[in-house]
Design a protein that fits this description.
The chain has a nine-stranded mixed sheet. The chain has a two-stranded antiparallel ribbon with strand order 2-3. A two-stranded antiparallel sheet has the order 5-6. It is built from nine helices and 15 strands. A hairpin with a 2-residue loop joins strand 5 and strand 6. The longest helix has 28 residues. The chain is α/β, with parallel strands linked by helices and about 325 residues long. The protein is globular, with a radius of gyration of 22 Å.
Amino acid sequence: MERFQSRTRSWNFASYAALTSLFSVGCIQHAAAEDKWWPSEWGAEDQKGSANRVTPERVLSALQLAREGKVYPIGQTYESGMPLFKGRDFKLLIGQDVPPSKNNLTAHIDYVSTELGQVGTQLDGLGHVGIGDLYYNGNNRNDFATRNGLKKLGVENAGAFITRGVMIDVAAYKGVERLNSDYEVTLADVNGALARQRVALKEGDSVFLRTGWAQLWMKDNTTYVKGEPGWGPEVCEWLVQQKPAMTGCDTWGCDAEPPKDPEILVPCHQIMGTKAGIYNLENMNLEQLSKDHVYEFLFIFAPLPLKGATGSPGAPIAVR
C-alpha cells in the first residue's frame, strides 16, 4: 500500500475509507431488508435450520440404504501439513504424563491448537457467514457474537445427521479426472449427472458435489487452496428448493473460486447458509464412492457439540 507523506492526506484517505465502509455496510443492510429472507420456515426463534429435516421417519428410511454394510470414510485426515485456508493453522502437540504409581503408569495427552471448526473436513454452522450484520433467521451479529462464543446459532444446535446421502459426480459426468479450478458447476451439469446416475433428490437428503479436487489433498496443497471448482449461484438457488438437510463438497469452500465477479465472494454460502439455514460440509473425500459408483447411501455425521462455535470438525461416513 502506498505510504502517504502528509498526515493530512493520510487522515483524508482513512476518513474516506471509513465513510465508504459505512456507506457499503448501509447499502448491504438496506439490500438485506429489501430481500428479507426471515423468519425461516421453522419460525422466528429457530436456530437449527435445515437440521430440522432430519426427522425420525427420514432416519428410518435412510437406514434401509445400508444393504451391504460397507463403510466409506468420506472425510480427510487431520494432520500437520494439510491444506489450510488463508493463514489458518493446525498444530498437534503431545504431552508426557508420568504420575507417581506402583504400576509405572505413563500416558500421552493431546494438545491441539487450531481454528477447530474451520480446518480440514469441516461443517459450517449457521453462525459462520452472514450478509452484513445479518445471519440466519435475521439474527444481528451485534446481538449474539462475542469473543467467547456465539450466544445464538452455535453449531451445538445442529445435532446429528443420519440421512439419505446423494453424491453428484460432476467430474465423472464431464468425463474428466477433476474439474478445472474456478469451474462453475451449472444446473445442466447437476441434472446431467443425476440423470447419468439415475438418482433423484428428495427433501431431507444430504447432497454432495464431487469435482475430483480431493485428489490434490496432501499431494499439491498449493493448487488445492489457490482456487477450486464449485457450485454456481443458479445451482445453489435450485438446491434451496430441493430442501436438503445438508450440502457438501470435496473442495475447501464449495463455491467456484476465483469467482466470475471478484467483488462477490462465496455467494452460495449466503444463498444456502445465511438465507436458507442449510449446513455445508467442506473438504470431503468422495473418491472411493466415485470409483465404486456409489451415488446413494446412508450418510452419518455428528458435529461436536461445541457451544457457541461457528463450525465443527468430524468424521463423516457413508454406508452402502
